[in-house]
Every structure is written in structure tokens, then in C-alpha cells.
Amino acid sequence: MANHMNAAKQSISDKSLFGGAMIIAGTAVGAGMFSLPVVGAGMWFSYSLLMMLGVWFCMLVSGLLLLETNLHFEPGASFDTLTRATLGNFWRIVNGLSIAFVLYILAYAYISGGGSIVNHSLQGLGISLPQSVAGLVFALGLATIVFISTKAVDRITSIMLGGMIITFFLAIGNLLIEVEPVKLFSPDGEASYLPYLLAAIPFGLVSFGYHGNVPSLVKYYGKDASTIAKAITLGTLIAFIIYLCWLVATMGNIARSEFVDIIAKGGNMGVLVAALSDVMASDWLTTMLTLFANLAVASSFLGVTLGLFDYLADLFDFDESTSGRLKTAAVTFFPPTLLGLLFPNGFLIAIGFAALAATIWAAIVPALMAYKARQLFPDSQGFKVPGGTLVIAIVIIYGIITAACHLLTMADLLPTYGA
User: Is residue 418 part of a domain?
Assistant: First the structure.
């Protein structure tokens, strides 16, 4: 759930449809994509593809339901305003807490992933650090950028976004050329695949998290429902295609049985990149892949923590003075950094917990708000998601199933590949 919106906005001069789509895609795609091949190893490629298609559809519909509600209010109305006006203070508080939790847990996930990939990068230079120390260096370095100013984050993220695009296609392009179809469609290892699908669903939800940007798009485009709906659809499709290429590149080059060892080592970003590096044709391409991983986790961390920084500053009424920003930085970065020091290999676990909370504000709440908005504005002739109450029910059920899958996995009631 990276937040590259500020960076993406810089490239938009005429409010183009493609610009809005890039805001959505840039927000959805981030370091979380490194979890997809690992959690998908049990069900492997075909079931991973089916799972991603189902998640993409539900998350697209939930975003459009949020748009439907948003268009009943003036451009600039926040997610908080929409929730309070349609569902009342209880859901407003629940939604706000879930957003804060997701931002915190993702900050920790990216510190864990950042420490892992920084450590992997340093090992290539002959430098060895404990992963907890590497995570601390990663967190402190990027926290300084957030503390300086939003503009600093904006400029750094713009550069990172460009670098991510270049390094992704250079590294993944080579991996796609080297794909072995037999690894994708006739994998080795145990013959059971479908039982592992349910445990992977929450990770798919996190990969399509963009809903916080829907009110921003309404503010940006005005009440141009058609353009915004197309931007959301195109943006999520771009994200889906990127994930598809990533799954093909990883699962088509690394045998299914090899993921058992990757999972046993914690399944963190550095472990996966190291496994891919072993099958790449040259050291230069390995460098591109490692650079992409570093840029992805750094930009994801900057986007998430900037949102958390601003949210907490508003919540605690900290001003923009140096002392005020220091206080905000302390409450923003201390908890996830401490977790990173205590539990340096919690990347996959944290992504799962993020999904548990994200089901509230990215699936259940948007569907409930649209249902309530249709009651509050029965004569509205504006934008309405097709499918009536059925699509609302589908999204709510999807959210409940996703949360249940994570809870069942925590209780060891769903099988985990490699365990």
C-alpha cells in the first residue's frame, strides 16, 4: 500500500485520465508486492492468478462505491467526513482507528523489509550488519526526510518513482525472457494447491489498497464521475498487470520447492531478492533488481509515514515548529522502529495484520457508506455502481472473508506452505 500520490501529481499538468490512473497505480504498487510470490507459493501460479483477479474485482468495486458516496458531497470532503455523515460517529471512530493501525503496521513492515533488503545490498559490498541494525539505519535515514518537510518527501519520491519504473522493467524484463513454462504450470513439490488459497487472500487486499486517494481524486477532478471511474479502473488494471508480470517472473524462475527454504528464512524481501539473483544472467541485472527493491521499500515507507505523520500532527494538534515536528516525528517513528528492532523479520506477519484492519476502510466501510447514501439520497441521478445491493453485499462478504482468513491463519486453522 505505497502512497506515491504526491509524486504522481507532479507529472500531471492537464488533469489527464492517465495521470489519475497513475496516482491509483502508484499508490497500490509498492514493497508489498514482494509478499505475493511468497504467500502464493502454496497455491502456485494458476490459483494465484485466479485469486488476484477476484481481489482486483472486489477492490475495484469497493473503490467505485466509495466514489459513489463521495460524489454526494462537495469536492474536498475527507474520508473522515464521509464516514461521519453517512454512518455516524461509531463507524467514523472505527474507520479512523483502522486507518491509523494500517499506517503504523505498514511502517513497521517496511522497516522490516527495508532492513532485509539493505542488509542484502550491503552483503554484496562485503559489509555485514545485524538485520535489526540495518532496519534502524533505514528508518532513521528516511525519517529525517519526512521530518524536514512534505516537499522533501515529494521530491525524493518523484526521483524514486522514476528509478523504480526503469529498474523494474530492466530486471523483470530479463526474468520474463528466462521464464520456464514448466515451472509455472507443472511445478514440483507436493500436489496440493487449493487449500493454500484462503491464507493468501489478505495479502492480495493490501496489494490493491488505494482507497484513501479516492476523495483526493474527487477534489482534483471535481465531480467528473466518468473520468474518475475510468482512472480508478485503469489504475487498478495497471497494478494488476504489474503483479501478473511479477508473479510470472518469480514463479517462472524459482521452483516451487525452493520457496520452502525462502519461507523458512522468514520470506523477507532480501531473501526473495537473493533467490532471484541466483538465476539472473548477469551481476548488472542483479544490481537492477536490488536497486528496484530498495527504491520500492523506501518510497513505500516515505508515503506511508508521511500520511501517518500528518494524521498524528492533526490528531494531537502539534504545530509546524521544529519542536512540534519533533514531537510528531517521535510518535510517528518510535513505535514501528522499536518493533523493527525487536522483531526484524516481521514483514509478512505485518502485511497480514495490515490486511485485517484494511478490510474495514477499504471494503466494508465503503460498501456500507454506499448503501446508506442510497437511502439518504434516493432521488439522486448521479453516478451509481451497477449491480444494486448485490455488489454491495459481495464487497461486504469479501471483506468479512478476508478478515476471517487472516484470523484463521493466526489460529493455525489454515495450512501454511513450508510450515
Answer: no
- The amino acid occupying position 196 is Y
Q: CATH code at 50?
A: 1.20.1740.10
Q: With pLDDT > 70 as the criterion, what percentage of the chain qualifies? A: 95
Residue of 347, 28, 45, 349 lying closest to 196 (CA atoms): 45
Question: How many CA atoms are closer than 13 Å to the CA of 69, on its beta-carbon side?
Answer: 30
DSSP 76: T
Of 360, 354, 359, the C-alpha closest to 108 is 354
Q: Give the torsion sign (CA, 415, 114, 207, 276).
A: negative
d(CA 17, CA 19): 5
DSSP string, 94-119: HHHHHHHHHHHHHHHHHHHHHHHHHH
Q: Is residue 417 domain-resident?
A: no
**Domain limits for position 300:** 5-410
Average pLDDT over residues 208-227: 89
Of 300, 362, 340, 285, nearest to 65 by C-alpha is: 362
- What does the block give as the cell for 156? 525524493
Task: Give me the helix-helix angle, 89-124 and 269-277, nearest 10°.
Answer: 40
What is the total count of domains within the chain? 1
Residue 9 included in any domain: yes
A 10 A CB-CB count for 244 gives 15
The confidence score (pLDDT) of residue 1 equals 54
d(CA 214, CA 235): 12
Confidence of residue 37 (pLDDT cuts 50, 70, 90): very high
Percentage of residues of the chain with pLDDT beyond 90: 46
CA–CA dist 302, 141 (Å, integer): 11
Query: CA-CA distance, 235 to 252, in Å (whole number)?
Result: 25
Question: What is the residue type of 255?
Answer: A
Q: Letter for the amino acid at 402? A: T
- Enter the C-alpha cell of residue 37: 510470490
pLDDT at 171 over 80: yes
* CA 326 – CA 343 distance, rounded (Å): 25
In a domain, 147, yes or no: yes
Q: Is 259 helix (H, G, I), strand (E, B) or coil?
A: helix
For 194, 205, 224, 295, the CA distances from 43, given in Å and listed in that order, are 6, 17, 41, 29
SS3 396: helix
The count of residues in the chain is: 419
pTM here is 0.86
Residue 86 is classified by DSSP as H
